[in-house]
Amino acid sequence: MNHIHESEQGWTRRAFLRASSLIGAAALGGRLICPSVGFARDLPEGRLTLVNLWTDERLNVTYRDETGQYDLDALDEMNHILRCHHTGEVAAMDVRVIEYVNLVQKKLGGDREVGVISGFRSPEYNASLVRSGRRAAKNSLHVQGQAIDVRIAGVHPKIIRQAALELGYGGVGYYPRAKFVHLDSGPFRHW
């Protein structure tokens, strides 16, 4: 059950890259706040079940309907659960990283709960991680709301990593000792 569903590979990379190129946003202070609509017919259902592993908050949400319309209230709820767990600061997450997490989860064949280790990080918290020598980048995409560190219930992180690499979309970091995978909406790369 932890294998990647081969039948879903056709829509993943092509559709996601097309969709990502069409996502427009109004910018406020450099952060994405409102995605455009209309491309999502090529993407899987816009639904995720998230659990913040620091607060144990859960959210089962449909953030995009079948016509491609984003539900801004649902995105606000996602921003809240993906907030900086250290400071409580909420930021607008890049919808591309949300779609990336959704694609990886769907590629793995289901609607399993996605455990969030880190979504948005406040600049202060990220700087403290860098100072303490924890594996945090000085210019982390977490600070821009463009990265999410995840675990998926019942799926080994190595399998999550493989699914993300096969999509060939954004950043994929594998942290086997901590048992999570980093996904971001930056350029494709892996470590």
Number of domains: 1
DSSP strand tally: 9
The DSSP helix count reads: 5
What is the strand arrangement across the widest sheet? Answer: 4-3-5-6-8-7-9
SS-derived structural category:
alpha+beta
Strand content: 15-25%
Tell me briefly what this model is.
This protein has 191 residues and is α+β, with helices and mostly antiparallel strands. It is 30% helix and 24% strand. The chain has a 7-stranded mixed beta sheet with strand order 4-3-5-6-8-7-9. It has a two-stranded antiparallel sheet with strand order 1-2.
Polypeptide structure, described:
It contains five helices and nine strands, in the order H-E-E-E-E-H-H-E-H-E-H-E-E-E. With 191 residues, the chain is an alpha+beta fold. The chain has a single domain (6-190), classed as Muramoyl-pentapeptide Carboxypeptidase, domain 2 (2-Layer Sandwich), CATH 3.30.1380. The strands form two sheets. A seven-stranded mixed beta sheet has the order 4-3-5-6-8-7-9. Strands 1-2 form a two-stranded antiparallel ribbon. Strand 1 and strand 2 (31-35) form a beta hairpin. The protein starts with 8 loop residues before the first helix and ends with a strand.
Keywords:
single chain; 191 residues; alpha+beta; Muramoyl-pentapeptide Carboxypeptidase, domain 2; 7-stranded mixed sheet; two-stranded antiparallel ribbon; 5 helices; 9 strands; 30% helix; 24% strand; globular; disordered N terminus
